[in-house]
Design goal:
Blueprint lengths: L13 H10 L5 H5 L5 E4 L15 E14 L11 E8 L4 E7 L13 E6 L1 E4 L2 E5 L2 E4 L12 E4 L8 H12 L12 H7 L4 H9 L4 H31 L10 H10 L6 H14 L6 E6 L5 H14 L3 E5 L3 H14 L7 E4 L5 H13 L4 E4 L13 E6 L7 H6 L8 E6 L5 H8 L3 E5 L10 E6 L3 H13 L3 E5 L14 H11 L5 E4 L5 H12 L5 E4 L12 E7 L6 H9 L9 E6 L5 H12 L3 H12 L7 H4 L13 H17 L9 H11 L3 H7 L3 H7 L6
Helix pairs in contact: 3-5, 5-6, 6-13, 6-21, 6-23, 8-9, 18-19
Length: about 700
């Protein structure tokens, strides 16, 4: 990148405006050109002043008849209004007034007799229609306006970065473009999709001559974002497939013996997923698979089969989880499952003593430990393995992409299985994890009862408490979940600490426990063990129970201030109470006054127990958001594309990306040079990925699969 490509060197920007642009992610001319409008306004057709209507946007043109700047006395300042500028304009059909607050400097810019073009929404005031703080331009014959008399793009802006300045800056940046500007989207794709070239598309998306032109350019850039994300996905997949791994010996007798150790039969869905994993483990390149499924569907059991195959093949397995409670829970589950197999299983968490941690480090390096289950403690530089060949990561969304990548580096191209109980719609799974093979467990074990979800308002609180008493008196246990531990003066939320004292009085006949993230590890284990053993009837907690707290007898959960949680998180919480054959009840207790968006979300949860449907609804309401952050997934922010809305374009982009990487895995062909340059600019140098593919092209072509459908 040349220094002159920086936004500060564009006319009218400079260092101060550069800082403001930087805050919204704009550093270069390319960044500002790809800062797209989020909507358009039709400002082409002028209305006669006599025809304007209240609350209907309009563009009018008229001469300034009068102007008045009223300065407010200090003691009369209302809402910090210091001055009011009012002008009267006429177009010979009628007169109207325009008003601006605290913009007295405009007085000297508006001279009586000037022709003014104004855009805004008239409002009734003192029996007359006025335009309050409208956009305006002083009309000069022959001058091309960027803001009025045309279709105008509207951009996300800040207090110090106005719409007019953004449009002016983009216009200046566009002047640097010409018809020969390099276009990283291949010509055959542009021709096949009837897309404009990059220069035409950038001009049309910012300053379109028609809505059709704007839409076609938007489609091009949506496709382009999805196309390059999929190019990267397939490069990653090619990199995985070019590595050499140790195949596991899959013993049918072992698998059958493991199944006999279970106290239940695998579901058809579990069997299908297990077959996919076992097939992967026998290949000479590492498995990279994402295993999805709702809370309680049996992902851990399927993973345990893979762990057993690793150990029986003479290798070590590491299982990373986000919390110490989940680490101890999985350890107990695997020890029961592997009873009689002689496997050495240990836990590695930060709360262990220094002596215990050092002992585990030594025995992992010596190969005396077959299976280690741990938290982030597994990522420590001091952790080394003798022969690590399987890495499993549970609740993978709780770890950043960099963290997830560290553990496999402690082995020699180990097989890699990541699991998620947060359902990801297929369109997003293709975008985010397209380099991983995808398995989904679609059913719960037999006998499970779907929770009855009830959304009630504050005036039903007495009924909620009576319901909890009824169920606990019948022998069940309950959770009551709060969004915060302590009260905050700035937020109208019920806090765990305040409500805990009140609940102890309200449920004085029952045993109440408190659980939250600030407790020490041993305190957490103690509370959960007491809850599991039935020594606590009602657990008052934050969302820390969302992951890894399994108490079969707990069948009631009340969530206070549910509007503070995303649908996916609420669905995760709901999964905590559907692990037994007793009927579960999930109660959302909100305030009496709830906005429409929150109402939609809570109704969606009330109406469905399908995690994938819930996730889709959540994403429709909130947008993809953090799903595409660089920090979490190593993919670029999507500025204009939305995989849920643009699923058909995503499928097409994936097909094109697949064909290109299959036939030119190092992007060496001349027609792909600009793709490589664009990928480098988006994701940094790709030398490591390309060098791994060197001399493996034939293998790569055979191994990469066409899974875009």
């Amino acid at each position: 990148m040349l220094q002159t490509d920086l936004i500060r060197y564009l006319k009218g920007v400079g260092p101060k405006k550069e800082e403001i642009f930087n805050k919204v992610g704009i550093y270069t001319l390319d960044d500002i050109l790809h800062y797209f409008p989020f909507r358009y306004e039709d400002r082409r057709n002028f209305k006669k002043i006599k025809d304007i209507k209240e609350n209907e946007f309009c563009v009018i043109k008229g001469k300034i008849l009068a102007r008045n700047l009223k300065k407010m006395p200090y003691f009369l300042h209302a809402k910090r209004v210091k001055n009011i500028l009012e002008i009267a304009i006429s177009d010979d059909t009628a007169v109207t007034h325009c008003t601006w607050f605290n913009q007295g400097y405009l007085y000297d810019k508006m001279t009586i007799g000037d022709t003014l073009i104004v855009y805004g929404k008239p409002r009734a005031h003192d029996g007359k229609l006025k335009l309050i703080s409208p956009e305006f331009e002083i009309f000069e014959e022959g001058e091309d306006s960027l803001n009025l008399g045309r279709i105008v793009g509207v951009y996300s802006s800040t207090q110090n970065l106005g719409q007019k300045f953004i449009r002016k800056t983009i216009s200046l940046a566009l002047e640097n473009l010409n018809a020969e500007t390099k276009d990283s989207l291949p010509f055959d794709i542009r021709r096949g999709k009837n897309f404009p070239n990059i220069a035409q598309a950038l001009k049309a998306i910012h300053f379109p001559q028609s809505f059709e032109e704007a839409e076609k350019s938007r489609e091009r850039f949506i496709f382009e974002e999805l196309f390059f994300s999929q190019i990267l996905v397939y490069l990653r997949k090619a990199k995985h497939r070019s590595q050499i791994a140790s195949p596991f010996k899959i013993n049918a007798e072992l698998i059958e013996k493991l199944k006999q150790n279970l106290k239940f039969s695998l579901t058809a869905s579990q069997d299908k997923v297990l077959s996919e994993i076992l097939e992967d483990l026998q290949k000479n390149y590492p498995m990279h698979r994402l295993l999805q499924g709702d809370v309680g569907c049996g992902k851990t059991v399927v993973c345990a089969f893979a762990v057993a195959c690793a150990v029986s093949s003479g290798f070590q397995a590491a299982f990373m989880v986000p919390t110490e409670i989940l680490a101890y829970q999985h350890t107990e589950t695997l020890r029961n499952f592997f009873d009689g197999f002689g496997y050495r299983i240990e836990v590695l968490v930060a709360s262990l003593s220094k002596k215990e941690i050092e002992k585990i480090h030594k025995e992992l390096l010596d190969g005396k430990i077959d299976i280690v289950i741990g938290t982030h403690a597994l990522l420590s530089d001091e952790v080394a393995f003798k022969n690590l060949r399987l890495v499993a990561i549970d609740e993978q969304h709780k770890f950043g992409v960099a963290q997830r990548a560290l553990l496999p580096k402690k082995g020699i191209n180990p097989h890699y299985l990541i699991m998620s109980a947060t359902p990801i719609p297929r369109s997003l799974a293709l975008s985010l994890y397209g380099d991983l093979d995808l398995s989904v467990i679609t059913e719960l074990p037999k006998g499970r009862i779907a929770p009855k979800t009830m959304w009630v308002r504050e005036d039903k609180r007495p009924w909620v408490y009576d319901f909890i008493k009824e169920k606990v008196s019948a022998g069940r246990q309950a959770y009551i979940i709060y969004p915060v531990i302590e009260e905050n003066e700035d937020e109208d939320l019920r806090s765990l600490e305040v409500m805990y004292g009140k609940l102890k009085k309200k449920f004085s006949k029952f045993k109440i426990g408190m659980f939250h993230g600030r407790l020490k590890p041993q305190q957490k284990l103690s509370v959960i063990n007491e809850f599991r053993e039935g020594k606590i009837d009602i657990l008052v907690s934050t969302t820390v129970v969302e992951v890894g707290v399994n108490v079969l007898n707990a069948t009631v959960m009340v969530v206070e201030n549910p509007e503070r949680f995303g649908l996916a998180q609420l669905h995760q919480l709901r999964g905590r109470i559907q692990r037994s054959t007793h009927a579960p009840y999930f109660i959302l207790l909100s305030g009496n006054e709830i906005c429409e968006e929150v109402s939609q979300r809570l109704k969606a949860l009330e109406e469905s127990n399908d995690g994938f449907r819930i996730a889709e609804e959540d994403l429709k309401l909130r947008g993809p958001g953090d799903f595409f952050g660089r920090m979490q997934h190593g993919l670029p922010d999507l500025r204009i594309a939305n995989p849920l809305r643009d699923i058909e374009l995503l499928k097409e982009a994936r097909v094109f990306a697949y064909k290109i990487i299959k036939n030119d895995p190092q992007l060496q062909k001349p027609e792909h040079r600009f793709i490589r340059e664009r990928i480098d600019s988006l994701f940094g140098a790709l030398k490591d990925s390309f060098s791994l593919l060197k001399n493996n092209t034939d293998d790569h072509r055979l191994k990469i699969t066409n899974d875009h459908r």
